[in-house]
Write a structure and sequence with these properties.
The chain has about 450 residues and is mostly helical. About 75% of the residues lie in helices and about 5% in strands. A three-stranded antiparallel β-sheet has the order 1-3-2, with no helix packed on it. It is globular, with a radius of gyration of 22 Å.
Length: about 450
């Protein structure tokens, strides 16, 4: 898997991802402490609102930002957004009102909503070989899991020598180092597509996404991921410290079990996908997530929780890691930024639904009720994915162009042109507005 780090451009971008994630992890800890300083016993409400603002920014900003960013040089966009995020992080220690936290969080997450899809759409252009790209997706998943483990430990170590406000400086440094690493390499230019109005450019990615059967299946898988993931992220501390009467160390170990399962799956996926394919792996992951959420309703002790969280972590990576491969194969290179932005927005919309269910229903009706509700959502989502994602998901599809003249240049592309019908790798674009019917 590590052989792809021989590619200098990818190596620098991967390092940029790691340091930015570490900085973001420090900000997460610091934000919790800042919320307590400003709001005391109401800190939970402040953090909950900040998380909701984060998700709203992701859902609303990503497609719009992609529409504008696609016309600018990638490196300039990524560096500019890193510098902006560094500046916002430096401003956070100076706030003295809760509303100021909300404004800065919205600004910070809006920049991330523009940065992440642009970054993700750059990687397949740097690593055109599908096996290399699959390894990159697995490394990216490992980076997220390691960040969840390392950032809290790093924050704890720093807090022994400095106040929590200085953690925001660490966040800023992470973004500045990320910007320097991006500057250090030449990035392939995004392929320009024809001009269009802002509405057309903003909605293009979502329209391609929703018109592609495998991506509609991916959206259902995203909902299963969010359902089980929200149960773990929101309610681990409630299970461990309230229901089981244990401490913070046991909470950290429970989250580590979840991250360990996710890391194990990410490590084996590059080889596994040669055997089973994306659809099988992702649907198996969604089924594991649904089962895990269902079993969470039966938890009554700490050791079974560790095993269950490990199982959910495996399903989490199985369902998520191959998604970049689907996106890459479902759009022209010039449309990749738009379709990655659509995935970013739509997947976070799923979390915007499941976070309140996990938190509010868990608090009002108890953890078993929240687990059952999220399990029902995950089962429904996995079932929808199974039914709408074709089992025979071919890339090369025979189709017709009744709207094109017989001498149109496009009809000469592909194989087997005959009376307006031909075969080629099919994606939704300006000449293909709808998926061909199954024959």
């Amino acid at each position: 898997m590590l052989t792809i780090l021989a590619n200098r451009a990818y190596r620098h971008l991967f390092a940029a991802q790691i340091v930015a994630l570490l900085g973001t992890g420090l900000a997460t800890v610091a934000l919790a402490l800042l919320a307590f300083e400003l709001a005391g016993d109401e800190a939970g409400a402040v953090l909950g609102t900040a998380l909701a603002i984060k998700m709203i920014a992701y859902v609303a900003i990503a497609p719009v930002a992609s529409a504008f960013a696609s016309r600018l040089p990638r490196r300039a966009v990524l560096v500019g957004l890193d510098l902006f995020r560094a500046g916002v992080a430096l401003a956070l220690p100076f706030v003295n009102e809760v509303w100021q936290v909300y404004v800065l969080i919205f600004a910070l997450q809006s920049a991330s909503a523009a940065f992440t899809p642009t970054f993700q759409a750059t990687i397949p252009d740097i690593l055109p070989d599908e096996d290399d790209y699959t390894r990159a997706l697995s490394l990216s998943r490992l980076a997220y899991d390691l960040e969840n483990l390392i950032s809290p430990m790093l924050a704890a170590a720093l807090l022994t020598v400095v106040g929590f406000h200085y953690l925001f400086a660490g966040t800023s440094v992470g973004f500045l180092v990320s910007a320097a690493l991006v500057v250090s390499v030449a990035l392939p230019a995004a392929i320009a597509r024809r001009a269009g109005g802002i509405y057309e450019r903003t909605t293009r990615g979502i329209r391609i996404y929703l018109a592609t059967p495998r991506l509609r299946g991916l959206l259902a898988v995203n909902l299963a991921v969010a359902a089980a993931g929200a149960m773990v992220i929101v309610n681990t501390v409630v299970y461990v410290q309230s229901a089981f009467g244990l401490g913070e160390r046991q909470t950290a170990l429970a989250m580590a079990a979840f991250g360990g399962g996710s890391m194990l799956a990410a490590l084996v996926l590059p080889r596994l996908l040669h055997v089973v394919g994306d659809r099988t792996a992702m649907l198996a992951g969604a089924a594991l997530l649904a089962l895990g959420a269902l079993l969470a309703a039966l938890l009554s002790a700490y050791p079974p929780l560790l095993g269950l969280w490990f199982l959910i972590g495996i399903g989490y990576s199985l369902a998520q890691v191959p998604s970049g491969r689907l996106l890459r194969r479902s759009a022209r290179p010039e449309d990749r930024p738009a379709i990655f932005a659509a995935q970013f927005a739509l997947s976070h919309a799923c979390w915007l639904v499941t976070y309140p269910v996990a938190g509010l229903l868990g608090a009002a009706a108890g953890l078993p009720a929240a687990a059952l509700a999220l399990a029902a959502l995950a089962v429904t989502a996995a079932s929808i994915a199974l039914s709408i994602w074709p089992a025979d998901d071919q890339e090369v599809i025979e189709h017709e162009h009744a709207d094109l003249p017989a001498d149109h240049p496009h009809l000469k592309a592909g194989d087997g042109s005959h009376r307006g019908r031909h075969r080629h790798s099919f994606v939704i674009d300006d000449l293909h507005h709808a998926w061909p019917p199954v024959r």
